[in-house]
Amino acid sequence: MHSHPQLTLALDTAPAVSFDSFHVDSSTALVRDSLRAFVNGQLKEQQIFLWGESGTGKTHLLSAACQALAQRGYRVAYIPGEMVNEPGALDGMEQVELLCFDDLQRLDHASEVDLFHCINRCREAETRLILAADRAPDQLGLKLADLQTRLGWGLVSHTQLMDEEGLREAFRKELQGRSLEASDEVLSYIMRRFPRRMAALKSIVKTLDEVSLSEQRRITVPFVKSIFGEAERAALQGRLR
Predict the structure, then answer these.
(1) Pick from 127, 107, 133, 162: which is nearest to 52 by CA?
(2) Is the Cα dihedral 96, 101, 163, 233 positive or negative?
(3) What long-range pairs does 229-234 form, CB within 8 A, spacing at least 24?
(4) What are the C-alpha distances in Å from 191 to residues 42, 63, 79, 166, 198?
(5) Sequence-distant contacts of 145-152: CB under 8 A, at least 24 apart
(6) What's the rounded mean pLDDT across residues 28-53?
(7) In what order do the strands lie in the sheet with 98-101?
(8) Cβ distance 164 to 193 under 8 Å?
(9) 15-19, 165-169, 216-220: least confident range
(10) 92 CB neighbour count, 10 Å cutoff
(11) pLDDT, tens only, 47-71
(12) CB neighbourhood size of 71 (10 A)
């Protein structure tokens, strides 16, 4: 295996998740299934660009792709947007089998040339690429027109937020994953009062699990109210902005 000074750091920044743990509804299943097929070599494309607002699961999907190939012995690298701007960060990255770039809306204009050349090297080395940003390639405000062209070379997919029914089912599955149960009344209360984002719901489930375990209490609306006051809800909302 080739060693690279950025490789270990890049992998450490990707959370250990899988395609199976990515919650989907009718509008999001296609993107997940496309990424899974891409990782399994079932698509002719060598590159995929994901774009969508925060909370649509782009980081989850990139990490799942990394995990899936790493478990099969392939060399992978996950690079968050801010790391792309580090001098020399992309040197030799074409040596891995899968290279993932996240949050490319954070790309500095000064780093556009480096990313351009990295994509070209990956193309020549047949390294698969997954890139993600909160907007489409033509909305990134890039100064290097050729880089915008490169970003759109393969499949470009729009990730979307799940609808309310999908979020409710995802929340229920997150609870079941921790051997917790909540009534429809509790689910409706949380959906009304908290940010409708998967990251928020996972944070709520984690807290409910910790507190209900320590207090041995059932999850009811009064119980949820006792844990999450106005300050906690505001803080949760703020972290997702």
Answers:
(1) 133
(2) positive
(3) 233/193, 233/194
(4) 37, 27, 33, 11, 11
(5) 146/116, 147/112, 147/113, 147/115, 147/116, 147/119, 150/116, 150/119, 150/120, 151/49, 151/104, 151/119, 152/49
(6) 91
(7) 76-79, 98-101, 128-133, 47-51, 155-158
(8) no
(9) 15-19
(10) 16
(11) 999 999 887 889 989 999 999 999 9
(12) 10
d(C-alpha 121, C-alpha 123), whole Å:
5
Residue type for position 205: V
Q: Quick: pLDDT tens for 61-105.
A: 999 999 999 999 999 999 998 899 999 999 999 999 999 999 999
Percent of the chain whose predicted confidence (pLDDT) is above 90: 47
Unique residue bearing structure tokens 């984002």: 197
Side chain identity at residue 112, one-letter code: E
CB atoms within 10 A of CB 76: 26
SS (H, E, C) the chain: CCCCCCHHHHHHCCCCCCCCCCCCCCCCHHHHHHHHHHHCCCCCCCEEEEECCCCCCHHHHHHHHHHHHHCCCCCEEEECHHHHCCCCCCCCHHHCCEEEECCHHHCCHHHHHHHHHHHHHHHHHCCEEEEEECCCHHHCCCCCHHHHHHHCCCEEEECCCCCHHHHHHHHHHHHHHCCCCCCHHHHHHHHHHCCCCHHHHHHHHHHHHHHHHHHCCCCCHHHHHHHCCHHHHHHHHHHCC
Report the alpha-carbon distance of residue 163 to residue 156 in Å, rounded: 22
Tokens of 18: 């899988």
